[in-house]
Amino acid sequence: MSQRIVLASNNAGKLAELDALFAPLGVELVPQKALGIGEAEEPFRTFVENALAKARHAARESGLWAIADDAGLCVNAFGGLPGVDTAYYATQFGYAKGDANNVRALLEQMQNIDDRRAALVSTLVGVRSADDPEPLIASGRAAGEIVREPVGENGFGFDPVMFLPQFGKTFAQLPAAVKNSVSHRGMAARAMVELVVERWMA
């Protein structure tokens, strides 16, 4: 039987991306929801602390190795925010939680801002148990600019407004394979795969 790793996320978009990115490990990735595991508290102000809390929670509840992702949008003009609050960004402005409302709120808040620089950041943390003293930590960062209106049909989250100068397109205009090769989550996942092989499977 292959090694099972629980993914401490219920975000369908993240799960699909990570499933493809972790394929080289040859392990079975199990979403925490499939094991009846609820979401962990995320009280911290950094991606790494929240990802660690989620990974420890999933490992404790499942008894399996666990990998968690915490990711968000860091906008230069906002001092790096919304950061860890990205998923709930729209709710600060009276909108319901959701990708479309997050994009709408961001474009409204940046309407009169000329500095459009931003980065999507992903931090992955892996633990072999809830008490693992040596968590694996991998980060990825995709820098670009926020366009003034959504473009493209692919992806999720802020992909339709995150413009990548090297492609002249937004993430939402890129095929999945291309996006995964340059995205924040793709970078973090490839680094995590290397760490898992080196530290856990050697």
TrEMBL record:
Assigned GO CC terms: cytosol
EC number of the protein: 3.6.1.66
Xref: InterPro entries: dITP/XTP_pyrophosphatase (IPR020922), ITPase-like_fam (IPR029001), RdgB/HAM1 (IPR002637)
Source organism, top-level taxon: Bacteria
Residues that hold substrate according to the record: S9, N10, N11, A12, G13, K14, A71, F156, G157, F158, D159, K179, H184, R185
Gene Ontology BP term (one): nucleotide metabolic process
Residues that coordinate or bind Mg(2+): E41, D70
Hydrolase as UniProt keyword: yes
Enzyme class: hydrolase
Catalyzed reaction equations: dITP + H2O = dIMP + diphosphate + H(+); XTP + H2O = XMP + diphosphate + H(+); ITP + H2O = IMP + diphosphate + H(+)
Active site (UniProt): D70 (proton acceptor)
Protein name: dITP/XTP pyrophosphatase
